[in-house]
């Protein structure tokens, strides 16, 4: 047998045998995994064609001067240098966006947690209340709700009409630079349904015997909340905080509708995403807008990384 393998014919037979073995192994693997890959095919097409592909193209465009009418012209880091040194609207948009994030996320999570704790007390018709409170999260991002919100906070809107019954003359909330951003914060807080559902699920996982033992020891309701509810709920709080902050950074529709796409008055509602939209589709500076988009990606990534690094000091898991 060894002599035959040393001959050319024997070597060819060994190569054919090894090839047949490899082909058979590949066929078995394919037969075992082909259904899974076929089910994944729509997602893979969407991921590479609609997510990863456009993201890589936008990264390339961020280093170019591209107006969507002519071919992109390579400019290197010029777009990023301009953003850092010669674009006052960039700093204005960042200030507005950070103000929105700092105010909307804590108020939204606090309100969602309070409602979840109220629903966790065993109300009748819990599923109905849960659906009603979740409804704003489904509708809040729509154009219709943004238009309605603009009407509510107009100078002759329902809010000022209610204040007039108490002898208070309210301003035109959406037209005043000191108040307009807070109308958008109020709209964000109104969309508390999604974190509320998650908080409610987290509250249901806390053992009731811990509260019973604390009550027997004389702990007040506030102390039970501070010593039992909050520590055991920190993983859910962490998840909601990260998700809601990312969503706040990406907010666009309310500011666009309420300000008419201008970010006014005096750039008081110029969200970062709205400024990005203006540069891309208003001024046709697609390369510059792509650079703005990637800066937003970096900002969100830094926040997320910071959140995970600091979570070890305040997020308590089962271990």
Automatic annotation (TrEMBL):
The protein, known as: ABC transporter permease
Q: What top-level branch of life does the organism fall under? A: Bacteria
Looking up InterPro entries in the UniProt record yields:
ABC_transporter_permease, MetI-like, MetI-like_sf
**What are the transmembrane regions?**
37-63, 98-119, 131-149, 179-203, 224-243, 255-277, 289-309
Q: Which family does it belong to?
A: Belongs to the binding-protein-dependent transport system permease family.
GO CC list = plasma membrane
Report the locations given in the UniProt record: Cell membrane
Alphabetized UniProt keyword annotations? Cell membrane, Membrane, Transmembrane, Transmembrane helix, Transport
State the membrane topology: Multi-pass membrane protein
Question: Which processes are annotated in GO (biological process)?
Answer: transmembrane transport
Does the keyword Transmembrane helix feature in the UniProt annotation? Answer: yes
**Which organism does this record belong to?**
Rhizobium leguminosarum bv. trifolii
In this record, what's one Pfam family? BPD_transp_1
């Amino acid at each position: 047998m060894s002599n035959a393998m040393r001959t050319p014919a024997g070597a060819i037979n060994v190569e054919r045998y090894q090839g047949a073995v490899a082909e058979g192994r590949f066929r078995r693997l394919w037969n075992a995994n082909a259904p899974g890959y076929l089910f994944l095919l729509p997602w893979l097409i969407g991921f590479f064609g609609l997510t990863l592909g456009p993201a890589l193209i936008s990264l390339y465009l961020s280093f170019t001067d591209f107006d969507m009418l002519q071919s992109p012209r390579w400019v290197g880091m010029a777009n990023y240098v301009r953003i850092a040194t010669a674009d006052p609207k960039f700093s204005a948009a960042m200030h507005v966006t950070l103000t929105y994030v700092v105010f909307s996320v804590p108020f939204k999570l606090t309100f969602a947690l309070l409602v979840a704790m109220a629903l966790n007390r065993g109300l009748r018709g819990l599923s109905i209340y849960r659906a009603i409170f979740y409804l704003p999260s489904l509708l809040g991002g729509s154009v219709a709700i943004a238009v309605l919100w603009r009407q509510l906070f107009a100078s002759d809107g329902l809010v000022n009409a209610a204040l007039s019954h108490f002898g208070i003359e309210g301003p035109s909330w959406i037209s005043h630079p000191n108040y307009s951003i807070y109308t958008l914060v109020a709209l964000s807080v109104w969309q508390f349904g999604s974190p509320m559902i998650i908080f409610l699920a987290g509250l249901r996982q806390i053992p009731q015997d811990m509260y019973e033992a604390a009550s027997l020891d004389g702990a007040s309701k506030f102390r039970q909340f501070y010593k039992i509810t909050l520590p055991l709920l920190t993983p859910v709080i962490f998840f909601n905080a990260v998700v809601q902050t990312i969503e706040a950074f990406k907010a666009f529709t309310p500011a666009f509708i309420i300000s008419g796409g201008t970010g006014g008055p005096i750039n008081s509602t110029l969200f970062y995403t709205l400024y990005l939209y203006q540069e891309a589709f208003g001024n046709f500076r697609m390369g510059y807008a792509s650079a703005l988009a990637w800066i937003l990606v970096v900002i969100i990534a830094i926040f997320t990384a910071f959140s995970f690094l600091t979570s070890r000091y305040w997020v308590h898991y089962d271990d």
